[in-house]
Amino acid sequence: MKLSLLICLALVCLTNAGAAEPKPITVKAGQEFKLTLHANATTGYQWVLAKAPDEKLVKLLGSEYKRLDSKLMGSGGDMVWTFKALAEGKAEIGLNYLRPWEKGVKPVETTNFVVVIKAGKDKGKKPDPKPGS
Fold it and tell me: Does the pLDDT of residue 38 top 50, yes or no?
């Protein structure tokens, strides 16, 4: 029974190892946004940038690992990446889930995001007319 469960888990990991379809995100220029991905730092795996975004459009502000509120040893958490949209356009962000010290080993999971950045709230918008004009 345990062996069949391990085989099923291995197949799920292998199925997820291919490049994922891009996930669209729409933000406004000047807006900060976060990408949250499940991770488990106790295994040595972590999310790393595989494809950094165009620095003219999106700036990486930082990343942090947040453990889940669990008393279980070895329980996972979330990796939270914070970015800021700088200018109108479309940027791509690729992330790989891997052990950084293992060279030549494919990531166990990949994910991609397409960030569509629209004009900020004031750009291109006409001011509301004053009452009575």
Answer: yes
